[in-house]
Amino acid sequence: MRPFSGESSPRRVCALFSGGKDSTYALHWALLKGFSFGCLITVKPRSEDSMMFHVPYVELTKLQAEALGLPQVFYEQGPESDLDALKRALTAAREAHGCTALVTGALSSDYQRLRISLVAEEQGLEVFNPLWRKNQEEYMRELVRQGFRFILTSLSAKGLDPGLLGRELGQEDVEAIISSSRVHGFNPAFEGGEAETLVVDAPLFRKEMRVEGYPVKVSEYNWVFNITRVELLEKRGAREWSR
Q1: So what's the pLDDT on residue 5?
Q2: Could you tell me if 148 and 21 are in contact, meaning their C-beta atoms sit under 8 angstroms apart?
Q3: The CATH classification of domain 136-234, taken from the options 3.10.180.10, 3.30.1490.270, 3.90.1490.10, 3.40.50.620
Q4: CATH classification of 11-128 is 3.40.47.10, yes or no?
Q5: 45, 59, 116, 170 - which has most CB atoms within 10 Å?
Q6: In the β-sheet with 101-103, what is the strand arrangement from edge to edge?
Q7: 56 near 154, Cβ under 8 Å?
């Protein structure tokens, strides 16, 4: 990632934001590239098996937006299709915050990337996918090295240790996940839905989240982390930046 140069971009970008590691990293990338920032965009899907939108604990993105000090367009999907829900959320972001570009955390899913790009381009928004086809083992290592703190809120793959649920992943955890993925064949960055993540702190967060809860077994390889308490805490030396 190129260091922040202080140069601003004429683009005013919004970020499709789920609260997980990928969308948070993509937001981080856009801000360090000097893009002028409009808002976060979060769509809460009506279905728990949505293939377009992140589902677990999406309401916590409101706390993350507060931690980042950024405005958010939070759209709850009604009876409309996924694409129509996204279109309405993007329209709101463009009209309320003057956005001219969209950044996403798409890693390797053509299903999501192509549909998001189609809707965004219909709205006249340029699209950036900074994680697209990134080496996913190196990406997981880079997240930890750069100070992204995140927990796993669900597991659904053989070879993932339920003991990881609710725990901030460190470098040793990442190496263990990578090693296991090579044995069991799951995606080490969880692009196939093998796990869901929640970012509790990142370099540009002005506050950090403290999360408490407990793991629940759903089936042989399926576990969820039941969150019972969340609070925002002040950070010492939090970075200030301008939108």
Answers
A1: 37
A2: yes
A3: 3.90.1490.10
A4: no
A5: 116
A6: 72-76, 35-44, 9-16, 101-103, 126-128
A7: yes
**Predicted pLDDT of residue 1:** 31
End-to-end CA distance of the chain: 20
Give 193's DSSP letter.
S
Amino acid type, 206: R
- Between CA 208 and CA 4 the distance in angstroms is 22
Distances (CA, A) of 120 to 94, 101, 181: 10, 8, 34
Positions of the chain with pLDDT under 50: 1-7
Q: Which amino acid is at 160?
A: L
The pTM of the full predicted model, rounded to 2 decimals, is 0.90
Find all residues with CB under 8 Å of 152, minimum gap 6, and list them.
164, 165, 166, 167, 169, 195, 196, 197, 198, 225
The H or E element containing residue 174 is: helix 171-184
